[in-house]
Amino acid sequence: MSESQIRHDICEVCRRIWVKNMVAANDGNVSVRISENEVLITPTGVSKGFIFPDQLLKVDFQGNKISGELNQSTESKMHLRVYQRRPDIKAVVHAHPPAATGFAIAGIALDRCVLPEIVLTMGTIPLVEYGTPSTQEIPDNLEKYLPDHDAFLLENHGALTIGHDIYAAYFKMEALELYSQILLNAYQLGNINVISEEQYKKLQQVRKNLNIRGKNPGCLTCEFAALKEMKDSNQLSDPSAENLTKLIAEVIINVLKK
Ligand SMILES: [Zn+2]
């Protein structure tokens, strides 16, 4: 794909995150890796609703500007860390979508088996611990989640999604925000039902067949299933009833703490 097409696509995605109210004023940033050591990224100080292809910056993996008139965003560090750690990833979208960011502020990771679509496409969406903007704290905190996830909540900040191309990364952001809105509705109605163990097992098989990256969501159903599997395959050193009860109690406490 030509560089001018990629520049066009970045601006298209920028406009969509702005139109969909996922960013305000100059918030958010979008990038695409275009070679082994080069990234096209949105500059600081420009609204994503009004950005043009020739305003994008070209930077190397160390964050040195190769071309472009405007200044780099301090959030580009987060993008570069993704490209350094995940060679399979070609695009990164960062925004502050209101429902997902609400969960990031409430300190709630999206790690229950609620919607099969999300279990299949993104699995658990972790909450990355808070980091001071413009420092290496956000990339450093993100690091441990990078191998297993493609979508992240950034505590008291926003959301980050990554993909093998710009539209894959963008659609994950869209899906994450809609999922967050749906979850919020369910919270307001007072109940969140998770899918059954039997249904979850089927999803797990589909994930395996489709070779989907990422951890399975860690809801109560899944943790019981995992525990049972361990017991059935004798992985528990002492699968006595007493031992199992103790383990189940631990699992419940862990889940409630989430
Ligand atoms: Zn931000």
Protein model, in words:
This protein is of the alpha+beta class. It is built from 9 helices and 8 strands. Strand 6 (127-128), helix 5 (137-143) and strand 7 form a beta-alpha-beta unit. Helix 3 (98-106) packs across helix 6 (166-189) and helix 8 runs antiparallel to helix 9. The longest helix has 24 residues, at 166-189. The chain binds zinc ion. The site of zinc ion has 6 residues, from loops.
List keywords for this structure.
258 residues; 9 helices; eight-stranded mixed beta sheet; alpha+beta; binds zinc ion
Average pLDDT confidence is 88
> What's the shape?
globular
Low-confidence stretches: none
The main pleated sheet reads as: 8 strands, mixed
Oligomer state of the chains in this structure: single chain
What structural class do you assign from the helix and strand content?
alpha+beta
Order of helices and strands: HEEEEHEHHEHEEHHHH
Number of helical segments?
Answer: 9
> What's the total count of β strands?
8
Distance between the termini: 43 Å
What is the radius of gyration computed over CA atoms, rounded to a whole number of angstroms?
20 Å
Bound molecules: zinc ion
Strand order of the largest sheet: 4-3-2-1-5-8-7-6
Portion of residues in beta strands equals: 5-15%
Helix content class = 40-55%
